[in-house]
Amino acid sequence: MEAEGLCSICGRPAKLHTCHLCGRLVCSQCMDHRKGMCIKCAGGKEISSSGSKDTGVFK
User: Fold this and answer.
1) How far apart are CA 20 and CA 49, in angstroms?
2) Count of domains observed in the chain
3) Residue-wise pLDDT tens digits, 14-30
């Protein structure tokens, strides 16, 4: 499902995708499309609003 609004992870305005695990609405950069999950649920790295990758890994 796609909607428009603010990403619940990075806060950018964008077309949003729904995480199949937690239901967060997230932008394409904060979505792991292969897994159908947001980067927090997928265990990926959060991308800061400046576009550079954060060094923290969410578990």
Assistant:
1) 23
2) 1
3) 999 999 999 999 999 99
25 within 8 A of 17, measured Cβ to Cβ = yes
Instruction: Provide the Cα torsion 19, 22, 8, 3; round to 10°.
Output: 40
pLDDT surpassing 60 at residue 35: yes
CA-only gyration radius of the chain, Å: 10
**For range 27-39, the mean pLDDT:** 95
Confidence of residue 49 (pLDDT cuts 50, 70, 90): very low
| Cα–Cα dist 26/28, whole Å | 7
**CB contact set of 30 (below 8 Å; sequence gap of 6+):** 7, 9, 10, 38, 39, 46, 47
Q: Which domain holds residue 12?
A: 2-57
